Amino acid sequence: MPMIKLTRRSVAAIEPSSVRMFYWDTDLAGFGLRVEPTGRKSWVVDYRPGAGGRNVVKRRLTLGTVQELSPEDARKRAADILAAVRLGSDPVLERKKERAIPTFREFAATFLKDEAGRLKPNTLRNYTSYIRKHLNPALGSIQLDKIAPADVAKLKSSLVPFQPSDFDNLILERNIEGRCGYALCPREHRKEDPKAKYRIVWGPKGSGPNGRGRDITVVPREKLEMWCSDECAERAMYVR
Fold it and tell me: What is the pLDDT of residue 72?
């Protein structure tokens, strides 16, 4: 294994060979340069985790290419890593654990797949749409443990205000699940006679012509079955 002092001049003078080569620094044990046959040069650091010793298998961590890090920066980074190892750190294992944490997009895809058999079809469609349109563009590439409050705040500020069409979808979703369409109501929606397509609904006293009698409205059965009561229908339409 060639041993040289890794400087800008010495690194620039190294020519690639037909096989991968490693050049180790004479000043900092474990700090080296990997040279590929293609000419690519990368900084590396070798260490033995835990208590160390020759019986412990070495681990190797790539720090970056010579274009990304100067010899001085790479040596300092290697020294910091070796100091952390002496205190019990294992950078290679920590990097593997970090890379194992899924991004939000990966997590969301797993969530939708796992919940597909439990969610109502319309609920699943809504979740999929919201994730695709709003969440993935804003958070998709970020690992779960890296999502910060500022990322969530930015997402919330960019969302289009709740639209009437969104409210209609919410009502439909609740009805499919057998619940009253009013979001704050815990009851089931009412069920009218399935043989009747319409129902006559009487208004309050004095709602008729010239303030006399009661107004009469013919309402489709499907409209009545959206709610558990007229009161919930009025509340929901006020919100809409």
Answer: 95
- How many other CB atoms are found less than 10 A from the CB of residue 136? 16
Report the alpha-carbon distance of residue 240 to residue 167 in Å, rounded.
7
Cβ atoms < 10 Å from Cβ of 11: 18
SS3 35: strand
Predicted TM-score (pTM) above 0.70: no
DSSP string, 111-138: HHHHHTTTS-HHHHHHHHHHIIIIIHHH
Looking at residue 147, the DSSP 8-state letter turns out to be -
Sign for the pseudo-dihedral over CA of 3, 4, 8, 11 = negative
SS3 content of the chain, % helix, strand, coil (to 5): 45, 20, 35
Phi-psi region of 178 (alpha: psi -120 to 50; beta: other; left: phi over 0): left
What are the residue ranges in the chain where pLDDT is below 70? 51-53, 158-163, 203, 206-208, 211-213, 238-240
Q: Both tokens of residue 136?
A: 């993935």
SS (H, E, C) 52-82: CCCCCCCEEEEEEECCCCCHHHHHHHHHHHH
Residue 234: helix, strand or coil by DSSP? Answer: helix
Q: Give 154's DSSP letter.
A: H
pLDDT above 90: percentage of residues in the chain: 32
